[in-house]
Amino acid sequence: MPSNPDSLEVVQVDKQESTALGGDDTDAAEWGSTPINPTEDAPEVAGIFFVESGDSRPIKTRSIWPDGNNLRFKDINNPGTGGGGYTLTELLSGSGGLTESQHKALRQLIHFLPDGPGPGWGSGPNYKETTYDGLKPTAEVWWETSSKSKKIFSVDTTYTGIKPSTETFKVYDTDGSTVLAQAVDAITYSGLLETSRTRTITVY
After folding, report:
1. Which of 66, 82, 100 is the last residue before a domain boundary?
2. Quick check: helix, strand or coil at residue 6?
3. Number of independent structural domains in the chain
4. Which of residues 100, 117, 133 is at a domain's end?
5. pLDDT of 115 over the 50 cut
6. Which range is most confident: 4-13, 24-33, 177-186?
């Protein structure tokens, strides 16, 4: 495709149409060819090849084609196993995309802030444990279950006097111990009131 899509020329494909083959006889021309109607005509093809300017034929690297009850998709960067492309089912199941339920279960910090796991985290039930220094919470850990064998997410808090000075958020891999990412918030105050915080994010 040209680097500037506005330079593409819009053309019309001539059609042959009949009711017997799924079209409408009244749309068929008695003499000569008729351009397709882009608002109602869908060409019947075995596949589609997408060509960039300057490409040589045959073009078999960017295409869509049917395979039984599936459509397959293929391009240069995503040829699929043996060059067979990917079906929509594979794209949705994680070979190139995510289902809604898979997205909910991603182990990313954004899915846990400000307070632990939400939908997508199994039957659990997820379990939270809090550790205190006097009345100050210093560690909060979300576990997969109350057996506390695998961590999901944790928050560690340090204090200057009675004021939290840093909060460290961590999200863990499926083994329950390996940290995938963390965010450290450095907090500033005016008197007893928080006025700002600086967040440093590390992805491992």
Report:
1. 100
2. helix
3. 2
4. 100
5. yes
6. 177-186
The sign of the CA dihedral 49, 51, 55, 61 is negative
Asked if 124 and 185 sit in the same domain, the reply is: yes
60 confidence band (pLDDT: 50, 70, 90): low
* Residue found by looking up tokens 């009675």 in the block: 162
Domain boundaries, position 169 = 105-203
Rg value, the chain, Cα: 29
Query: Is pLDDT larger for residue 12 or for residue 110?
Result: 12
CATH number at residue 148: 2.40.128
**Is residue 195 assigned to a domain?**
yes
CA-CA distance, 151 to 153, in Å (whole number)? 6
Please state, in angstroms and rounded to a whole number, the distance separating the CA atoms of residues 107 and 82. 31
- For the ranges 6-20, 49-63, 95-109, 148-162, the one whose mean pLDDT is highest: 148-162
DSSP secondary structure, 164-175, as one string: EEEEEEEEE-TT
